[in-house]
Write a structure and sequence with these properties.
By secondary structure, this protein is mostly helical. The chain is 54% helix and 7% strand. It contains 14 helices and five strands. Helix 4 packs across helix 8 (133-142).
Length: 335
Amino acid sequence: MTDSRPIVLTGDRTTGPLHLGHYIGSLVNRVALQDSHRQFLLLADAQALTDNMGNYLKVRDNVLQVALDYLAVGIDPAKSTIFIQSLVPELSELASYYLNLVTVARLERNPTIKDEIRLRGFERDIPAGFLTYPAAQAADITAFRATVVPVGEDQIPMIEQTNEIVRRFNASVGQEILVECKAVVPRVGRLPGFDGKAKMSKSLGNALPLGASPDAIRQAVKMMYTDPNHLRVEDPGQVEGNVVFTYLDAFEPDTAMVEDLKARYRRGGLGDMVIKKQLEARLQALLEPIRTRREDYARDPAQVMAILKDGTARAREAAAQTLDDVKRAMGLNYF
């Protein structure tokens, strides 16, 4: 019997273990989606190489690390197909066809690409693979005929460009071969680093990995940015921009309790250590079972790689069917 559930494509660049920002931004949704959708979970090692060719061994090692994070948070390989991007060559062939449907100028106008180029200081010295990644991402999505793609707000332009490519391809062959997809943005947007900077990032040293030890969690919360003008307990404090409250909003399910803390903090009479203790207790409870499951899987890396091998085989089968349909539509079915 054919599985008629909607198809969702998710994934992460394999540039390091996942952290709390990934968890609240996407991993919670992915665990839920695997019960209602056919989910393909991509370990984007090929994408990571677009600006990490000098660190290819790190990219290789992080395939296992990211897979451990997926399994630790509750991704079930019996429900979700976890696969390695570089081992599905059909994706590269699809991307090569899609590149004929976009211009260099259009790629350079993609807001996500523009921001990433600026962030990395490439200026005009842009790796070609990095600039053309929107076409590669379109291949990742369309290969599995995904209709749903959970992304952060900054990735919406990539989804828009994927749909442009879908429409152009279908128009060029006169058939509805590829399907458009919808971006799904999580309730909580990008989580700031615990130092108050706008983005949580391992490279900035302000991220808390999912496998963090109890002491690392404690130290991170202790360092968290609050209200610099809240010098005494009795002083009124500001909630907006206060990282501790941002994290409580993201991770504490008792919203009434959080709102009460905010009201007391604004009035004055509530110290920073009180709210930090509340947040630490919540993060310790959240990460302890994830850390334990991660450690259990890490004891048997061969088992994890077997899961990835099986998932990659299933992903190749799905991608090969789409590639065959695309080539037939273009008249490339010679034999």
